[in-house]
Amino acid sequence: MRRIALAILLLVVVAALLAPLVAPFDPAAQLDIVGLRNAKPSVAHLLGTDAYSRDILSRVLFGARTSLLVAFLATMIATLLGCVWGGIAASAHGFVSNVMMLLVDVARSVPRMLLFLVVVALMGALTPSPLAILLGAAAWPATSRMVFALVRDAESRAFVEAARSSGATRTRVFARHVLPHLLGPLTASGALLLADVLALESGLSFIGLGVRPPGASWGTMVQDALPYLGSAWWTAAVPCMCLVVTVLSAAALADQLQEKGTRSETAVPVP
Amino acid sequence: MSFLLRRLLHVFAVMAISTSLGFFVLHVIPGDPLGMSTEQAGRRAEVRQQLQARYGLDQPLLTQYGSFVRRAVVGDWGNSLSSGRPVAVSIKEALANSLLLSGTGLLLALVVGMSVGALQGWKPHSMLGRVLGSTLTALYVIPEFILAIALIFVFAYSLSLFPIGGSTDPVLSVVGSTTQQLRDRLWHLTLPAVTLAIGWGAAVARQQRNSLLEIRGEDYVRTARAKGLSERAVFLRHVLPASLTPVIIVVGLMLPVLVGGAVVVETVFAWPGLGSLLLRAINARDYPLVSAAIVLTGVVVAAGSLLTDAVLVALNPRLRATAGGSAAG
User: Which of A133, B207, B241, B272 is 20 to 30 A off residue A26, Cα-Cα?
Assistant: First the structure.
């Protein structure tokens, strides 16, 4: 299971990286708006063409670049921010810690969809990096809650107490004993976050708030294809399948990592 | 201080900070509510100034914030800048539609999700448990618009059992009898509500299962087994009730979706709810409408959080004795 999921993810990443080399056409080129409108899959166009006569295979490959870039960046941002914030809040104790966690509550109480609507609609369609920052910013409170709980849990463990009593400095205890304790849960939650962000990004692009056209993201491709669901279903099916397969692989990986974590005494709290 | 009073203060602080942040973000980000209407009508500068004065947009930001707070407390939001209709009326119409859709979805999700989660937690390592687990994870992470499109493709396009979108039939909603209208609403409601219920139900079921697994390892469960209780009695009397707390918390965190959380599904199915209203309002920089929505969301989040706490206190007597921190935290 885990190998298959990893293999699929790797394949998608490689396809995204090599998109300019392997894509048979320019993803934005409208090849023949009359003759190739919603053309069925053929030898020339392996996955057919969309309503603007653009080659779907090329668009899917380039779409992978956008979707993955945004998802990876956002996951990194959320994890880093969550670690720093949650780690400091957990180590600080007292007033500072309370205020920091209150702010996490505030951030968490903002429904993500409302946040996206306000920011994206006000700033217009986004390029991938601001979109990634936005998605990462929406996900960090959950991560920092998890890190907070994990650090507090680690601090109450015997191995941390042992390190402290043997005279290790606070920084050393944190870097050598608490941080490794977090790695397993963080990879598991990171994989799930990746799936989650990928789904969110495509959802935003789908309702027209994500990547600016004619840039291809899997979500925008589905949006373009929606009016032709009855007549040219493959234009929607291809990006949908790509999304489903990628998201499922990431989630399966997360599940496996989490199970592994649970078996090795460290329980992974669900964010 | 009692637990609930502490939580009340906490929730109120969260609400005040988040709605104020919402206000400032909205006003600081560039864009002008009068831009569109003045440009379109080719209105002159004086007209623009008059309009700004009329809506209080020429006041300093802090004064505008003051009136935002006053309006939030009184609940009077004046007229929408884009449609000219009272904000309260627009919001009420859309809210009714959103509540109907998301409420049905959430209810379905709860019933199905908790049953499936319990079924899975009963024998987690059996074949059935594993298959259910993978299916739930899949349904949990698949984007809801893809679920929506799949449902539309199968049940609306291919089988023609349900409508492709909309919330009512334009003819029946005027001339139909009450029963006809009711049936028509249900008919339109089915696909979007099921879409929402699948994703949310999977989330509830996963939480229920995780929580059951955690509790199975507790000491008192071992004690119950050691007393000689049957596996069934242990599960129903000791494990299942204790597993509800995290599930209730997750549902409490989900309550805000009742307000505008279903934008994507509303968009796919052309459902005239709060999400789509908000989308239009933001695009038009309709400050009163968006402000009202922000406050409404804040209130619902706070209410959901408090409701969760109240239910938890009712179910768990230990919380009444210890005035500890947030139960939901």
Answer: A133
